[in-house]
Amino acid sequence: MTFTIRAGLMACAASALVASAASGETITIATVNNGDMIRMQGLTDDFTKSHPDIELEWVTLEENVLRQRVTQDVATKGGQFDVMTIGTYEVPIWSKQGWLLPLTDMPDGYDADDLLPAIAGGLTTDGELYAAPFYGESSMVMYRKDLMEKAGLEMPDAPTWDEIKEAAAAMTDKDGEIYGICLRGKAGWGENMAFLTAMANSYGAKWFDMDWNAQFDSPEWKATLTDYLDLMNNYGPPGASSNGFNENLALFQQGKCGMWIDATVAASFVTNPTDSTVADKVGFALAPDKGLGKRGNWLWAWNLGIPAGTEKEDAAKAFVAWATSKQYTELVAANEGWANVPPGTRTSLYENQEYLDAAPFAKMTLESIQAADPQNPTVDEVPYVGVQFVAIPEFQGIGTAVGQQFSAALAGQVTADEALANAQALTSREMKRSGYQD
Amino acid sequence: MARKVSTRRKAVNTGIAWTVGLLIFFPILWTVLTSFKTEAQAIADPPIWFNFHWTLENYVTVQERSNYFRHFWNSVVISVGSTLIGLAIAVPAAWAMAFVPGKRTKDLLMWMLSTKMLPPVGVLVPIYLLFQRFGLLDTQVGLIIVLTLINLPIIVWMLYTYFREIPVDILEAARMDGAGLKDEVISVLLPMAVPGMASTVLLNIILAWNEAFWTLNLTAAKAAPLTAFIASYSSPEGLFYAKLSAASTMAIAPILIMGWFSQKQLVRGLTFGAVK
């Protein structure tokens, strides 16, 4: 036993020494497990070839775990990561806290002016870019052309919510397990509240007025939630209150949804014949509106940022420039085809005929992204930035709590009025507690 | 004298035992089955049981994308290291509590156990800051320390229970024969407590192997064990169940095999002293 303990301790110590000796000019990149990110990991030989002195370590995590880990690290200046994959929500908050390095002196040929203005605008604080977009997305309507034809309807390029309702009713065949519309119902600020906040914008609803008073008691929010519940209860799939992106993707790919309003990135999944049974029957349209000048689409980008605590700023910057450059897009196209390049970040991509030919959803993606304005997300003026979120630190907690109320309403556990009243009460309480009001 | 049990009752008992066993084992079986499906088959509704084209594609993808052996080695070092260090601390502690109990021994034991009742997230930030200050973030040493500390109460409690079953007279006899404290513990006490020690070691290795909260929060790339390896296969946008299942199967396989081979010791140790 003594020998075993001694041998075990020696093995641990030796292993720890090996681990600590392996450090050098190695940058650690925290990222999410998305197709585009995984593809980037597979292509890093190209980077290390041109930067032989830099080694890359990848930490891939689930989105929520990643968000918690990188927030913890950047807030405590832990220094565990040199490049972080962060969303459009984090960038304005973190840059104001001084947690991110500005990307001012990117290498020659980076062409920051080529970034899509709608995307770059959400990553800019006081005129400086704080994160480089890796891929961008909005939301749009994906619909079954065959079912629309069967119902004798035609989907306009820019539908209204009334037209969506009419199409949902016409396509629904519950006995045949075809549901007119599939929408997010799972509770979470990035789940059902991403969809509902964007939908609310098109109804003229808002989270807060200019004095940071919660607005869930407004008629606009009531109309939003009532119409959402009406659509889902009458034409949605059963158990929708636990459906998020992946669950709806699975339903749509199995031919069980007439329409699905969700992230533009889903277009490449539903048109992929390997996984989708309806790959050749999908049409695309802009997210619906209510005739008030705002559409119900969101704006999101996964971006690469450099934490202020890093000691390897130059190497980190070289990597960020490589991964978000035009040359990287060409590298992906050469290796995996134009349909697989990360979308939604550069104007030049949407001027490239090869890309437009390979990606039938490209035009609609660009129009959707351009239709969203994070600085003026809804009809009235508001004190916050963000289309489907409010870029304040408290929003993750509040957004998820409100999402739970709306998800409960979809599950039939509370009425729409009760859900709105609860949302109003909890949001007002948290905003007061956080010092936004006296 | 053995009790007479009717054949019918035996059949019922066997049926219940198999049902419970299968229920407990079902999630693992489903994970293993899913790991051999395509992503589309993994989410098929109604679910596909066995009638699908079996593929190793997910295992190939996982092998290509991740450095499995680095994660595996980290898991081995962290779980074995923390268990051995825990044992080195817990054996003298349990000996003292079992054979030289004081007035407050029971309170001390309860206090040790009460530390397990604290939700780990409650001490995450202080521990994270301490780790940062001492350069222990993303190191095997750091994880060995934290896992030793969180599993120590269980090791002490288990060893204490086993030691209490050993007649104190035997130790006294050894002492009268001239055995010192070291000989008493190493040559007399430990050999008698081998079944209990074995199950303590095995249980703690399993607990440390499966620990996900601290291992996910305190590691990045270098010291990340298999729990972090599994976590990297969950995706917010895109289908991932088949690949996640392949990663999970690869992560649990070593501990499952170890548990299979040592189940005799594990059961013997866990039921040690249960019947008097």
TrEMBL record, chain A:
Belongs to the bacterial solute-binding protein 1 family. One of its GO terms (cellular component) is periplasmic space. The lineage of its organism: Bacteria, Pseudomonadati, Pseudomonadota, Alphaproteobacteria, Rhodobacterales. Residues 1-21 form the signal peptide. It comes from the Bacteria. It is found in: Periplasm. The keyword Signal applies. This is Sugar ABC transporter substrate-binding protein. Its main location: periplasm. InterPro entries: Bact_solute-bd_prot1, SBP. Keywords: Signal.
Automatic annotation (TrEMBL), chain B:
Residues 72-262 form the ABC transmembrane type-1 domain. It is a multi-pass membrane protein. Keywords: Cell membrane, Membrane, Transmembrane, Transmembrane helix, Transport. Its main location: membrane. GO terms for cellular component: plasma membrane. The chain crosses the membrane at residues 12-33, 72-96, 108-131, 143-163, 184-209, 240-261. It is found in: Cell membrane. InterPro entries: BP-dep_ABC_trans_perm, MetI-like, MetI-like_sf. CDD domains: TM_PBP2 (cd06261). One of its GO terms (biological process) is transmembrane transport. Belongs to the binding-protein-dependent transport system permease family. This is Carbohydrate ABC transporter permease. The lineage of its organism: Bacteria, Pseudomonadati, Pseudomonadota, Alphaproteobacteria, Rhodobacterales.
